[in-house]
């Protein structure tokens, strides 16, 4: 077990957030946290990273978890280059030059590594964000809206990178509102709507159980039932 949520909630003063979420994440799985805007995906991820404290409920962690995290909104210093940022984070994470180089090459920023972030496009900044999450040892990778700003080539590369991480034995949880992306990649799915988990489990199993041909059909059916 990686982590178990036991009726975990984070309710903000406006009564929104994440409500009584119970779930179990197992080792070595690719898990999609899917749902629309304001569904509670980032809130759940922030609870998992410890950036948010639950208003009720708890998380029970398996032993020796080490988490790498790709936030959905990171502002890298505009005056630093990708190389400097990865170097700085590399020294904090005790990762040597060779791995730093591999990671920058993997996200396609090696050629532009000496340019400052100011000169990067949105997609390049997002790839730098991905690079920092790939850097250093972890067994649990949390990616919040990793496709944001990526073009089709890099979305395809992102899929490959997630599968590579799985091959290395890691658990990968990513949030998305792109249901086709979740469908293509995930083994397990947590479908969120207005702060509630409306469906969870093995993707093939939940589709079969609900007689749906894909996640989009399931999502529409579930939210219509919730209205
Ligand atoms: N700091 C906050 N203060 C008040 N309300 C918040 C706060 N953070 C999130 N919320 C509310 O909690 C709900 C869930 O937000 P969250 O950011 O987790 O959704 P999300 O699924 O990540 O959405 P999106 O896909 O739009 O990023 C939303 O209704 C949002 O307005």
CATH superfamily of the largest domain: P-loop containing nucleotide triphosphate hydrolases
List the domain count as a whole number: 2
Largest sheet: 6 strands, mixed
Uncertain segments are none
The gross shape turns out to be globular
List each distinct ligand once. Answer: adenosine-5'-triphosphate
Q: Return the CATH topology of the largest domain.
A: Rossmann fold
Structural class: alpha/beta
Please tell me how large the radius of gyration is.
18 Å
Element string (H = helix, E = strand) = EEEHEEHHHEHEHEEHH
Instruction: Say how many strands there are.
Output: 9
Q: Which sequence of strands runs across the widest sheet?
A: 5-6-7-3-8-9
CATH top-level class of the largest domain: Alpha Beta
Number of helices: 8
Average pLDDT number: 96
Beta-strand share of residues: 25-35%
Please give the share of residues in helix. 25-40%
Keywords: ATP-binding, Nucleotide-binding, Transport
Organism: Psychrobacillus insolitus
GO molecular function, one term: ATP hydrolysis activity
Pfam families: ABC_tran
């Amino acid at each position: 077990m990686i982590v178990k949520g036991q009726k975990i909630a984070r309710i903000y003063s406006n009564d929104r957030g994440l409500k009584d979420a119970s779930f179990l994440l197992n080792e070595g799985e690719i898990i999609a946290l899917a749902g629309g805007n304001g569904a509670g995906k980032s809130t759940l991820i922030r609870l998992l990273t410890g950036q948010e404290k639950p208003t009720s409920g708890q998380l029970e962690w398996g032993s020796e978890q080490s988490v790498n995290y790709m936030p959905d909104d990171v502002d890298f210093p505009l005056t630093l280059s990708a190389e400097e940022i990865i170097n700085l984070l590399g020294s904090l994470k005790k990762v040597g030059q060779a791995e730093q180089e591999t990671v920058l090459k993997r996200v396609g920023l090696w050629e532009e590594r000496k340019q400052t972030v100011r000169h990067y496009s949105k997609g390049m900044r997002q790839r730098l964000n991905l690079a920092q999450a790939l850097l250093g040892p972890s067994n649990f990778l949390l990616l919040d809206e990793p496709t944001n700003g990526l073009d089709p080539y890099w979305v395809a590369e992102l899929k490959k990178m997630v599968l590579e991480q799985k091959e290395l034995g890691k658990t990968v949880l990513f949030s998305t509102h792109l249901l086709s992306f979740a469908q293509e990649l995930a083994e397990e799915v947590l479908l969120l709507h207005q702060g509630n988990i409306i469906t969870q489990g093995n993707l093939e199993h939940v589709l079969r159980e609900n007689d749906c041909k894909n996640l989009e059909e399931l999502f529409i059916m579930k939210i219509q039932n919730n209205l």
